[in-house]
Amino acid sequence: MLVADAKVSLVLTGTGDVLEPENSVMGIGSGGNYALAAARALIDGPLDAETIVRRGLDIAADICVYTNRSITIETLQGA
């Protein structure tokens, strides 16, 4: 469970632990680590889509031992 007010954000675990998140960003659930990676990428400020993707995947690799840094990004050009 995530709990937040104007001053603090906390994660309440299923075992009753109360954790303060790193970088004031939180993500929970089966896709929580991916949401967390994307949110951390967005913290850096206004970025273009490719930079957000690269940053998010790099952060996901830091979080998840099954994610590596060997990526290919394909960009579609508008008509």
Protein described:
The structure is a single chain. This protein has 79 residues and is an alpha+beta fold. The chain contains 2 helices and 3 strands, in the order βββαα. It has a 3-stranded antiparallel beta sheet, with no helix packed on it. Strand 2 (9-12) and strand 3 form a beta hairpin. Helix 1 crosses helix 2 (49-63). The mean pLDDT is 83.
Short description, anyone?
By secondary structure, the chain is an alpha+beta fold. The chain has helices at 32-43, 49-63, and strands spanning 2-4, 9-12, 18-19.
- Could you state the order of secondary-structure elements as H and E? EEEHH
Distance between the termini: 44 Å
Strand content: 5-15%
Poorly predicted residue ranges: none
Structural class: alpha+beta
The shape is: globular
